[in-house]
Amino acid sequence: MEKLFLVHYGEIGLKRGNRSYFEKKLAQNIKLALKGMGCAEVRRIYGRILVMLHPDADVAAIHEQLRKVMGIAHFELVLAVEQTLDAIQDAALELVKDQQFKTLKVETKRANKRFPLTSPEISARVGATLLGATGASADMHTPDLRCNIEIVDEAAYVYVEKIRGVGGLPVGASGKVLVMLSGGIDSPVAAWRMMKRGVKALFVHFYSYPYTDKASLEKVEELVSILAAWNYRTLIYLVPFAEVQREIVTQTPAPYRVILYRRMMVRIAQQIAAAAKAECLVTGESLGQVASQTLGNLRVIEDVAEIPILRPLIGDDKAEIMDLAEKIRTFEISTLPHDDCCSLFVPDHPTTNASLEAVQEAEAALDVDTLTKLAVESVEKKIIDN
Ligand code: ATP
Ligand code: MG
Q1: pLDDT 10s digits, 175-199
Q2: Ligand 1 atom showing the smallest separation from residue 342 Cα
Q3: Which of 60, 174, 185, 381 is paired with 274 by a 20 to 30 Å CA distance?
Q4: Domain that holds residue 23
Q5: Same domain, 151 and 197
């Protein structure tokens, strides 16, 4: 009998032509997530992935890590045995002996159709053995304990506890995006939501040193190191934005400042995205949350974008976003005080419905191309490991 983790994925199964690509990506990510924890091998078998363990593996740590791997529907710590009824029964007895239960159900999945008994027959035989040994009774609807058996390829896997995974798709399987990360509550959550749909996230952060201190830099690096638990080795691009802001503040009317900052951020970010082969930009914008996030203003900002800007939080309420930020543990850092570059030199009542023409006219006072080029040239790139 060997103890190992059996991993099940949900949605990947739907991606017919790409199935093998998605499975490979998931297996690779599992390896990355478990490095240094005593995982001996990650092996793909029919519709599942096995995580084999060294004798000294840190089982609890591996359990915690698997809960964070995007693309896993559920997983379980199983006893792997040879494909005979005797061996399966021994494993089942071994597993239930430490459990408290009065009622029981045995469920079997037989992927290997060459095994001589059908799934219901296996469940009935193993069920009878367990009931006889424990004095429990059968309950097909709401049992205290479920004993599961899976007969796959050359082995049988037996387990009593199913652990829910995070779901989604394997990070990296859907391509790359560049997330505009501010240090606030929303953008880390937006990044996480995109990772869950299988994208690898890169990050860009604009900071206004010396107008602000460097607190936002420390915050974004900490946020990225939390997010790297799902995203693995992660790149962040740090962009000095003070010069751009100085030009905007001295050359353009105050009501348009936030929108002009944003348009410059998008121009700079999409050049970084192009160089890094990221296909889209991502922001933490949510409709109506602040003045710059009205439909009209989003349109004026989007006007300079040459690649799509994805806004996974656009329809979420602040409370929903905060809940998720708590769950992924970015909330605490996001709520530490810092001066965001976008709140610098902005009026109390910025325009909520700027016309594109008025913004373009204001922007004509700026040498947009040179400012963009200078900012892109002074980008600092950092790697943050998981
Ligand atoms: P967040 O909580 O993410 O800071 P917010 O509600 O404060 O969002 P805004 O300040 O309007 O909203 O910013 C909207 C989006 O613009 C952010 O979610 C982020 O994607 C991007 N953004 C804002 N400031 C920066 C920055 N300094 N660097 C990179 N991206 C930024
Ligand atoms: Mg913010």
Answers
A1: 999 999 999 999 999 999 999 999 9
A2: 24
A3: 185
A4: 2-164
A5: no
